[in-house]
Amino acid sequence: QVQLVESGGGSVQTGGSLRLSCTVSGFTFSSYYINWVRQAPGKGLEWLSSIHSDGKNTYYADSIKGRFTASVDNAKSTVYLQLNSLRSEDTALYYCATDRSGSHRGQGTQVTVSS
Q1: Given a cut of 80, is residue 31 above it in pLDDT?
Q2: Is residue 6 a contact partner of residue 108, using CB atoms and an 8 Å limit?
Q3: Beta strands 10-13; 109-114: pairing state
Q4: Which residues pair with 34 in a beta bridge?
Q5: Residue 64's CB: how many other CB atoms inside 10 A?
Q6: pLDDT tens digits for 62-97?
Q7: Phi and psi at residue 102, to the nearest 5°
Q8: Range list of H helices, 1-115
Q9: Distance of CA 60 to the CA centre of its chain
Q10: Which is higher by pLDDT, 87 or 56?
Q11: CA–CA distance from 31 to each of 2, 15, 34, 74, 78 (Å)?
């Protein structure tokens, strides 16, 4: 059974940075894409990024391109999302998921950006 556990969220000021982690278990990590999605208050799930476990193929939504960076550590079965230049509109619950729709995701980690 696939399990995803996110961590690393917190409260930061506008322009700040955070690094989110997603530890994956229950499947062959070396041959999967892991996705990051988020849900802002009162809104639906928004896909942010997909990264292959080999780290060579990465895709980003236009809304976060150039500010967020995904990376992977196969030895730790962990995917990261580095969040830079954070804005108030980045405030959301962030999830890692096995698909872009976020239908199978972890419990999430909260990111709050204030001015």
Answers
A1: no
A2: yes
A3: parallel
A4: 51
A5: 22
A6: 999 999 999 999 889 999 999 999 999 999 999 999
A7: 80, 15
A8: none
A9: 11
A10: 87
A11: 13, 35, 10, 10, 13
As a whole number, the mean pLDDT across the chain is: 94
Residues 6+ apart with CB under 8 A from 29: 53, 74, 77
User: What whole-number distance in Å separates Cα of residue 23 and Cα of residue 77?
Assistant: 6
Q: Which residues pair with 114 in a beta bridge?
A: 13
Res 44: pLDDT: 97
As a residue count, the chain comes to 115
Query: Mean of the pLDDT values across residues 108-113?
Result: 98
Residues 6+ apart with CB under 8 A from 80: 19, 20, 21, 22, 70, 71, 72, 73
pLDDT over 90 (residue 27): no
Q: 42: helix, coil or strand?
A: coil
